[in-house]
C-alpha cells in the first residue's frame, strides 16, 4: 500500500470496507434545488450543505478514507448573483472560524486548493490560519477547493513550470507526466480513487481534471444537503467491488 506522501506513515489499516477508496473527492451539488423545493432561498441550501460537510468528514476514519477533497466554489461560480456569491463567501468565513477548533482537535489536516487571488483578505487569512493550525495533524486530510477550476489550475501550474524553464531550473526535455503534477495545487495529494457527484448531474465541471484521469465515478441522485455518512459508506463498499485496470488488461 502506498505510504502517506506527507508523513511517510502507512495508511490506517483495518478500517472501512475491503479495498475501499483511500481518496474520495466530492462535487457537492444540489444545494440550490434542495432549498427551492422547500420554498427557501438558495443560501438556506448552502448552509444545510455546510452542515453535511462535518458529518462526512467525521465518517471518513471509520470508512478508511484518508483523503477527502470537496468542491466548495468553482472559478465559474462567480457568475452567480452577487447576493449568492457574497452569501457563500460569508458562509465560508463563518464556517472556517466556527470549525477550526473542531477540525484541529479531530486530527484533521486541512488544505485549500484553487486561486486565492480573487478571494478577500479576511477569508484568505482565515484559510491560512486553518492550514497552519492543522499542519501537524495526520488523521483525515481534508482539501477544500475554493475558487478552483481544473483548467485554471493546469494553466497556473504551466506558468510556474515555464518560469522554472526560463530560469534554467528545469530542462524542457524533463517535462513529463511525473513533472507536471508537481506544479499542481494538489502536488502533495494522491490522485482521487473515487469521485462522487450528487444531484443527478453527470458531468465533472472542471474538477480535478488531471488528477481524476483514472478515478472511478459515482453520479448519484441525492441532493447534497440530503447526503449521509451511510450513503458514503455504501458508495465505498461498491467501489471496493470495482475492477480498476488503469488501461491494462487483466492477466
Ligand atoms: C452546488 O450546489 C454547491 C455550491 C456551489 C456550493 C457548495 C458549498 C457548500 C456545500 C457549502 C459548504 C462548504 C464548505 C467548505 C463550508 P448548487 O448551488 O449548484 O445547487 P443547484 O445545482 O441545485 O442550484
Characterize the biggest β-sheet: 6 strands, parallel
Number of helices: 6
In one word, what is the shape?
Answer: globular
Order of helices and strands: EHHEHEHEHEEH
Secondary structural class: alpha/beta
For the largest sheet, list the strands in their spatial order.
3-4-2-1-5-6
* Unreliably modeled segments: 1-11
**Cofactors and ligands:** farnesyl diphosphate
Number of strands: 6
CA radius of gyration is 18 Å
The share of residues in extended strands comes to 5-15%
State the assembly state of the protein chains: single chain
Helical content class: 25-40%
Mean pLDDT: 94
N/C terminus separation = 21 Å
How would you explain this protein's 3D organization?
It is a single chain. The protein has 251 residues and is an alpha/beta fold. 38% of the residues lie in helices and 14% in strands. It contains 6 helices and 6 strands. A 6-stranded parallel sheet has the order 3-4-2-1-5-6, with helices on both faces. β3, α4 (121-133) and β4 form a beta-alpha-beta unit. α2 (42-63) packs parallel to α3. The longest helix is centred in the middle third of the chain and has 24 residues, at 82-105. It is globular, with a radius of gyration of 18 Å. The model is unreliable at 1-11 (pLDDT under 50). Farnesyl diphosphate (FPP) binds at residues 28-33, 46, 49-50, 53, 72, 77, 91-92, 95, 144, 199, 224.
Amino acid at each position: 500500500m502506498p505510504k502517506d506522501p506527507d508523513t511517510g506513515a502507512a495508511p490506517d489499516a483495518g478500517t472501512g470496507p475491503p479495498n475501499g477508496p483511500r481518496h474520495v473527492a466530492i462535487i457537492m451539488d444540489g444545494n440550490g434545488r434542495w432549498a427551492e423545493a422547500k420554498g427557501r432561498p438558495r443560501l438556506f441550501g448552502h448552509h444545510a450543505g455546510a452542515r453535511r460537510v462535518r458529518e462526512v468528514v467525521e465518517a471518513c476514519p471509520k470508512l478508511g478514507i484518508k483523503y477527502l477533497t470537496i468542491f466548495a466554489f468553482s472559478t465559474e461560480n462567480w457568475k452567480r448573483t452577487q447576493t449568492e456569491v457574497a452569501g457563500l463567501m460569508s458562509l465560508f468565513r463563518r464556517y472556517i472560524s466556527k470549525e477550526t477548533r473542531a477540525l484541529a482537535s479531530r486530527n484533521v489536516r486541512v488544505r485549500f486548493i484553487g486561486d486565492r487571488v480573487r478571494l478577500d483578505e479576511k477569508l484568505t487569512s482565515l484559510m491560512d490560519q486553518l492550514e497552519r493550525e492543522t499542519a501537524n495533524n495526520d488523521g483525515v486530510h481534508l482539501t477544500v477547493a475554493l475558487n478552483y477550476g481544473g483548467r485554471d489550475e493546469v494553466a497556473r501550474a504551466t506558468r510556474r513550470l515555464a518560469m522554472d524553464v526560463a530560469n534554467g531550473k528545469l530542462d524542457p526535455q524533463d517535462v513529463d507526466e511525473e513533472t507536471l503534477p508537481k506544479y499542481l495545487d494538489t502536488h502533495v495529494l494522491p490522485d482521487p480513487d473515487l469521485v462522487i457527484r450528487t444531484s443527478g448531474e453527470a458531468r465533472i465541471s472542471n474538477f480535478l481534471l488531471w488528477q481524476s484521469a483514472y478515478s472511478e465515478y459515482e453520479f448519484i441522485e441525492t441532493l447534497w444537503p440530503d447526503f449521509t455518512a451511510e450513503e458514503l459508506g455504501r458508495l465505498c463498499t461498491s467501489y471496493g467491488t470495482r475492477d480498476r485496470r488503469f488501461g491494462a488488461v487483466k492477466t
